[in-house]
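ligand=4'-phosphopantetheine
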Amino acid sequence: MTNLVEPERDVPWMEKIAVYPGFFDPITNGHVDIILRGLRLFDQIVVAVLKNPKKQALFSTKDRMAMIQEIFAHQPAIEVKAFDGLLVDFVRRQKARIVIRGLRAVSDFEYELQMALMNRQLDPEIEILYMMPSVNYSFLNSGVVKEVFSLGGSVAGLVPKIVERKLREKLKQGRLSVGK
Ligand code: PNS
């Protein structure tokens, strides 16, 4: 066909693998919800945990990955890997072309649009697919979880049990102080 701007885009993609990137400090039930939705569409999801020394994290990369691995221990379709550098380079190394992201509210949109378009600029062959989480988690992010927990609030039902346990450990170690 001659009238198409990007004729290769007319070829249907039958993707089996998708990458779900994030900082996951820590993973929440909102992230889990997106991963499970992703599994309805893809055979395999690589959860890509950003190891970024510039960004201060409560949990180490190893701990963030271990929590995700434990949550999906019985789900062989989920693989957990760490990455640094450009996301598009990591996605290419996985032989994947789809990135999954969750979109909670309008407030996410500007950042996600910028990220999606920048990634497309870097590699037009990679598509970013946005999914809405369950409304139960549409207000949720890792930062809110840490703040609420540090102030003595309950995060039950908002994070997997393993995350609650690890947050409690951090609190005991004084790494997540109450009232701060
Ligand atoms: O959990 P987050 O903080 O929303 O995840 C953001 C993440 C890790 C997806 C994003 O920061 C990222 O892709 N970082 C890798 C660096 C990169 O590729 N930057 C260019 C695209 S904006």
